[in-house]
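Morning F.,

Quick status update on the modeling queue. The single chain you submitted on Monday has been processed. Sequence for confirmation:
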Amino acid sequence: MQSSPSNTVLTVLQEQHPRVPEGACATTVLIELPPGSPGTPPHRHAGPVFGYMTEGEMIFELEGEPERVIRKGEAFWEPGGDVIHYQAANNLAGEWSRFVAVMMCVPGQPMLTLVDEEELRLRQHLRAPR
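Structure tokens below.
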């Protein structure tokens, strides 16, 4: 935590050094997951995504990493590109979970692309043990 002469407090939540696609635009979104929601099916993003949980808890799983719970006040990120995002589910059965995400979007490509069953089967060896 750093304090400035104006008493503004700056707290670094995370620091990453992603590859940002040339010509990318940044889109900031609020994602709201109803109680117990499984979230979006397995997908990928064209560019990196940076997020911050504002409320609740999310089960978060990227290809090659074990699933983990991200709680209110925690930051997360994913590199985008070829990496499959398996889960962004509400971990709470009785409460909404919300997070803000900044997505670096590649011009001419969709922000989010669903992954089909065949590709999931072919890449199953890249998913962390469950």
